[in-house]
Design brief:
- The protein is α+β, with helices and mostly antiparallel strands.
- It folds into 2 domains: 87 residues, Hypothetical Oxidoreductase Yiak, Chain: A, domain 1, CATH 1.10.1530.10; 168 residues, Malate/L-lactate/L-sulpholactate dehydrogenase, NADPH binding domain (Ribosomal Protein S8, Chain: A, domain 1, 2-Layer Sandwich).
- The strands form 3 sheets. Strands 2-3-4-12-5-7-8 form a 7-stranded mixed β-sheet. Strands 6-11-9-10 form a 4-stranded mixed β-sheet, with no helix packed on it.
- Helix 1 packs antiparallel against helix 2.
- The longest helix is centred in the first third of the chain and has 19 residues.
- The radius of gyration is 20 Å and the shape is globular.
- The structure holds nicotinamide-adenine-dinucleotide (NAD).
- Nicotinamide-adenine-dinucleotide binds next to strand 5, strand 8 and helix 9.
Length: 352
């Protein structure tokens, strides 16, 4: 049975895991807060359930704790960074701090970051910029031990779930943030851990045939995720690979690398001061009008009203902040095993 845990209950244990794994207090806090906030925002795929993968990457020497991204090129407003295979959360946070500084001088910043281990929920960095009144567009590539997403018209995996994110500040900030696959890999993992099927159209088996079985991503013979939106989503996934991978100078799908390197992300970010383009007060009014207009469309299912980008996360934060974050037994047992291996005490699962 799934339990509901409050942020304050989880945070000390997760912090201790990352501290025991060699991260500084600051790094441990940045990763911990990012993961728990992803759960709070409704994205369990990018929450504390990532810890077993992160610890696996650490044991293999693929992620290097306590790195600071190095600026290796680009004259303002451009900046090229290398994360030195550090954890993604502190790396992107530092690069977005730099981007915000550059944008405050130039009105715009265009940054790339390569050689970062998993950066988690991309929307978190867009929200870091929203808090400073900045809009942003992000293209991310991901490279894993093996690819997981099949090309449209293909039958085996060639890319990863390459997320795209667009965020616009204002009285009611807007946030588009999703994988270019029909389902995030972490959401397949959550279904696998719960022993549940995934919705139709998300996965294909090793013969390229549709399946609802999450095990095709974790057990041999391996299948693949599909790209969302047929040729349109596939084309966007491909461009995220181009901008997050080749344009950042980092690892890329099909780059010929032999061996394993963890879950590596590259991210290209375009950060803009919106006041350089439009008056803030007028813009807020325009967005309010537009939002009211689209939401006036009668819901096909009254239980599922029209939403705008970012609303789902706001609602999840309100609900999960109140009721708690759902944690399933498999996920907690995996986290507890990581903790035990590091000599950290965490409570057992209530029903265990
Ligand atoms: P998702 O399918 O849940 O889509 C989320 C997006 O859709 C949000 O912008 C949300 O506000 C919007 N949305 C949801 N319902 C809506 C509605 N009814 N109307 C309008 N907009 C709506 O997201 P996902 O693909 O499962 O991705 C989850 C997270 O995984 C994201 O934060 C993404 O950044 C992250 N991710 C990271 C990596 C990586 O390599 N680091 C890879 C893939 C995904």
């Amino acid at each position: 049975m799934t339990i509901l845990a409050q942020r304050a209950e989880l945070r000390p244990y997760i912090l201790d895991i990352f501290r025991a794994a060699g991260s500084s207090d600051r790094e441990a806090a940045e990763i911990t807060d990012h993961l728990i906030d992803a759960n709070l925002a409704g994205h369990d795929s990018h929450g504390i359930g990532m810890i077993p993968a992160y610890m696996h990457h650490l044991r293999q020497g693929w992620v290097r704790p306590n790195q600071t991204p190095v600026r290796v090129g680009g004259a303002d407003p451009f900046a090229v960074f290398d994360a030195q295979m550090g954890y993604g959360q502190p790396a992107v946070t530092r690069v977005m701090e730099a981007a915000a500084q550059i944008a405050s001088n130039h009105g715009v910043a265009i940054t790339t970051l390569r050689n970062s281990q998993h950066i988690g929920r991309v929307g978190a960095y867009a929200e870091q910029l929203l808090a400073r009144g900045l809009m942003s567009i992000h293209f991310v590539n991901a490279v894993y031990e093996v690819p997981t997403v099949a090309p449209f018209r293909g039958s085996d995996a060639r890319l990863m779930t390459n997320p795209v994110c667009v965020a616009v500040p204002g009285a009611k900030p807007l946030l588009l943030d999703y994988a270019t696959s029909t389902i995030a890999l972490g959401k397949v993992r959550v279904a696998y851990n719960k022993g549940e099927p995934v919705a139709p159209g998300r996965l294909i088996d090793h013969k390229g045939q549709p399946t609802n079985e999450p095990k095709v991503m974790f057990e041999d013979p391996k299948g693949a995720q599909t790209a969302f939106g047929e040729h349109k989503g596939w084309a966007l996934a491909f461009m995220a690979e181009v901008l997050g991978g080749a344009m950042t100078g980092g690892p890329r799908s099909g780059d010929g690398f032999e061996g394993r390197r963890g879950l590596v992300n590259g991210i290209m970010s375009i950060v803009i001061e919106p006041g350089r383009l439009v008056d803030g007060g007028w813009f807020d009014g325009a967005i309010a009008t537009l939002t009211d207009y689209v939401k006036a469309s009668p819901a096909a299912d009254p239980a599922l009203p029209v939403q705008v980008p970012g609303e789902a996360e706001q609602l999840a934060r309100a609900q999960r902040g109140r009721d708690g974050i759902p944690v399933d037994p498999t996920t907690w047992k995996q986290i507890a095993a990581c903790a035990k291996a590091l000599g950290v005490d965490v409570p057992g699962f209530p029903d265990a």
